[in-house]
Amino acid sequence: MKKYILIGFSILITACNLGTQPPTPESPATQTPLPTLPPATATDTLVFTPTSEPTPEPPPLYFTDEFTSASPYWIFSQTGGLNTPTTTFENDSLRIDISSPDTWMIGIHNVHTYNNVFIKTKANITSTGSFGLICRYNENGWYEFNIYSDGTYNLLYGKQLTEGVARYIPLSTGSSVYITSSSEIGLHCQDNFLLAYVNDNLIRRIDVTNYGLGEGQVGINTSSVSESPSNIIFEWVQVSQD
Questions:
Q1: Global confidence as pTM
Q2: Which residues of the chain have pLDDT under 50?
């Protein structure tokens, strides 16, 4: 009995299969080939190099600087005072602003050294303070001539002790009717003598043989007094032989 059932079941499956059409085989899917890409190449990278102002040619031994542009040959340093003065080249002038009292700022022109030299400047003091000139600046010291907004002047021997600290020895002090808030001053370092001028008038001549500064660089300086701020504007600096 069991055997017949299996046979009948087999016949039934066969009959079902005979009534069904075999599936039509599907055509294989076609694929459009991807375009061939060129091999990757390195792309040039644009490098933007910031442009800088070219360094100006150093001035000759004797020259006039009218401050029409900033110069890399002026080196400024501070001696004393709490706040650092600011220096600005603007409007064809050099402006130095000092915000703290009892502060000195020295500017040295570092291109040439001189023995006998005559340095002049025209400057304006817009408040209390002083401005002046320097000659024979070297590691052993320098000479200064300063005029003050109150009509006084001094000649000094200065020497750097440590960074930001200098010692000053007075060589001569006084007052002059020629000193105004806008003055032209001159300092002539001539052999063993210093000659100080205000508006083309010789106001002092002193012997500096004992200090023995033979040669050095020239410069300018400004300072505040017990009152501040101080604002000084240099119109030009001239360096000549006499």
A1: 0.77
A2: 1-38, 40-48, 50
